[in-house]
Amino acid sequence: MIPRHVAIIMDGNGRWAKKRLLPRSAGHRAGLQRMRSLIGHIFSRGVEDCTLFALSVENLSRPQEELDALYGLFFEYFTSEVPRLKDSGVKVKAVGDLALLPPRVAEAIACAERDTAQNTAHTLAFAIAYGARRDIVAACNNFVREGKEATEESFSAALSTAPLPPVDLLIRTGREMRLSNFLLYESAYAELWFSDKMFPDFTKADFDRALEEYQKRDRRFGTI
Ligand code: IPE
Ligand code: IPE
Ligand code: MG
Fold first, then answer.
1. How far is CA 139 from CA 153, 159, 178, in A?
2. Which atom of ligand 1 sits closest to the CA of residue 56?
């Protein structure tokens, strides 16, 4: 089975750059190039939806210079890539708190969402200024405000990842084996796959290896 929803923690840009004696921003640029080339490939393999972790709320405390470089890249991506995504039936979705971003970046992402809202073939979600705990707490507070009890279904629907299905395959590059506050609720039964490669080095063939490995997994969901 091909995973319906793949999520990727795109980690290792900084170390990729450091190894080459380049500034961290060069690593982020190389990561963005990699992301661009991977997206089409992921959907061509039959994956329906994909969520990419691009910036966590915790990352917001990095030096302003690095954040500015990232914001510049996001702006560039969302202003230049939308026509291509639109033509390939991809609906862009922002997952995270856009209010924490510089207004021009937030607006570029919101504009990409609006321009692709009619597409139905794939959803491509970008987790930017995202933190799972924050998202979960915000959902809880909505239920409290409305005086309603949550069910597992209504709770999922209140998260910023709604209406995406649960994550089937979660990939993290960059050698770390942790979730770093990413999709904690949505990944409850995700298959995890960790790559030693830094994200700018993560190729289409590496993605295919993750898919192959996923196909060998026995997803029991608690049964026998
Ligand atoms: C991931 O790469 C991208 C972001 C978090 C924005 P890092 O910047 O975390 O790269 P490393 O982990 O320092 O190598
Ligand atoms: C997680 O990577 C966030 C993104 C890849 C966007 P980090 O590099 O921020 O995670 P930690 O700090 O190593 O846990
Ligand atoms: Mg990192």
1. 12, 6, 23
2. 5
